[in-house]
Fold this sequence. Notes:
about 35% strand, mainly beta, globular, 5 helices, disordered N terminus, 9-stranded mixed β-sheet, 11-stranded mixed β-sheet
Amino acid sequence: MQPMQKALWRRPFFSRKPIGFNILGLGLGLGLALIASSRAEGLDLQKKLGKCLGDSIPLKVENQSPYVQLTAGSPKKENQGWFLIDTGASESYLDLEQWRGTVDCDKTHKICHPSVFKFFDLFKKSYFYIQDYSRVSPGLKQAGLLGTDFLDGYPYTFDYDHQLFYRAQPEQFCTDFELSQAGLFSVSTAGYFTQDRKTLRKLDGKLLPNIPTVSVELAGVAASAQIDTGYNDLKWPLSVNMNGAMKKALEDAHVELTPVPSRNSKVTTCIPGIRDELIAYDIPSSALLTIKSGIHFTKIHLFLKQHMDSKTRVCGGISTWSTPAVQLGASFIKKAGVMILDAKAEKVWFPILKD
Length: 355
C-alpha cells in the first residue's frame, strides 16, 4: 500500500510553480471518533430541502477526497474525466494528456481553454492551468482539479452520505431558516472565502488565498482552520497540520505534546528537490477539535509543518502565518457527511450533531 499522499499536484498560493505530493509516513492510526455527539446517519437533504439545493451529479469518494465526472472539450469533440473537488486549492487544472485533442491548450503558458465544461459555468473562469496527474496513486484516474476559482461562483453542497454533489442558483438557494430546520449550522468564512476577493484578509502583508477557513478550537486553543478536501489523510485519519504559532499557543496553554518520531515524514514543496518536514505529535486523548459548538472530533493525528529551507517560504500556506492556524484533512468532511459552501454569504454549513 502506498503511503498517504496529497491527492494532486497543486500550485502554491503565492507562487506560479507547481508543487509535488505531500507524502505522510506509513502507519495504522485508525481511531476516528466523534464524541459528545453522533451524526444522524443519512441526513436526507433532498427530502428536507428539495429543489433549493439545485442540480446534482454523482459524487465519488476516493482516498477520503471528493471527485466528480465531468464533460469538457469543444463543440466538435468532448471527453469525460474525473475531477478532484479541492477546497484547499485556489486555482483549477487539467491533465494535458487526458484532454489532448479535445481542449485547446497553450503549452508555452501552460494554460488550457475548454469551450465546453458541463455542469459548471465558464462565465467567470475560461481557463485551467496544465498539470500532470499521471503520478497520482493507483485507483481513480484523475483528469483535473476544481479549485475555489470555480467553487466561489455558486452555493455547492457535498453530500457524502448519498454520494451527490449539488450546485444551486444563488437566487434559488435555500434560506438560512430552511438550512437550520434541516439540521445544519453555519460557520463564517468572512475574510477567507468569498466572492469578493477584495475583502480577503491580509496577513504579514500578503493577501490570503480564497480558501474556506473557519474558526476552531483544539484542546481549547483558538485557531483558523483551512478546510482542505484535497488533503488525502487516508493513512492518518483526522490529520491536522499545525503551524509554529499554533504549536506555541498549545504549549503556552500547557497542552502536552509528545513527539512521535516514527510518524515524521517529509513533504515536497513548490521548489523541485527541496522538501519540508512534518513532525508528528501525540496530543492527549481528551483533547477536542471543535468547530463552533456543533462538531467535536477526537483522536486526531497532529503534525507540525515546518520549512527545512528558507527558500520554501515562497510556497505560502499556513506554515508561513504568524497567527495560530491548522489545516484539516479530507477525512474531517467525509466524517461530517455533509458540507455546503456559500461564498456569496461567506458561510460553510455542517450538520448539527445530535446526542
